Request: fold
Amino acid sequence: METNSSKKFYEVLESKGVSRRDFLKYCTALTATMGLSYSLVGQVAAKIEKAAAIRPPVVWLHFSECTGCSEAFLRTPDVGGIILETISVEYHETLMAAAGEQAEKSLHDAVEKYKGKFLCIVEGAVGTSYNGSYGKVSGKTFLEIAREVIPKAAATICVGSCSAYGGIAAAAPNPGGYKGVKDAIGIDTINLPGCPFNPLNLLGTILKYLDNEKIELDDYGRPLFAYGETVHDNCPRLEHYENDEFVEEFGSKEAELGYCLYKMGCKGPETYNNCPTAKFNDATSFPIQAGHPCIGCSEPGFWDEMTPFYEEM
Reply:
């Protein structure tokens, strides 16, 4: 039986162009992304409705980044619309209408009002050299802002490889001393790396957090539901072809290797991410499906350790 709250939830989504069919389609995709059985799609949908009733406050910080992760979020309109109905974004430099002193006041007010209760989402690496002087917002360095805001959050989620591990900003010679959030200020984070990250993984992480479900992480702080297998494990090109050299290197399991881009430098066997199943742009495609080798963007040490991109590891 449909409740008034769930009816309102669907009405809001439909007003943003997300039909019930679209919503259930993404619940199905999210269920698969979280490694759950298809029979649990209804439960996942119910969790999203429940989260929408709670709408935890979120402070989204931008440090050294290209805003590509926010763009990935915004250019996945259905998933983005669903996420924006499950969280209350109190501060986001790209999305908010406020600017200048008004924007800074919004940040300060949100952090103090929801101290210990808000989720902090971080996009971008933190500069640490010369007391963080390589990056500033409103006269404060990224390092100062990180130390001031992040410890007051209930939990911190790093979206994109830059905030998780330093990303391209930390590539050699790295004069700014850029690092991921944990390395920069010593606070544990949930990392959703990728260049850009996938918004489905953010939605899955938020749902698990709001449901007080333990989020199993790997040694690099990545949720296992999204980063537990390599890109190669689920690559759609694994079919109808044998490559003796590759089988010898990676094992007999790969005997059905097909159209493999490994010789073109594909980093799929060394990269942990759910790109083949979650995909991008409303689950349209992902690089390998479009014919481009994986560049390993969700791994610590990307860019230095994964280049040259078109040479075998």
Notes: The chain has a mean pLDDT of 88. Residues 263 and 312 are 6 Å apart (CA to CA). The chain has 13 helices and seven strands.
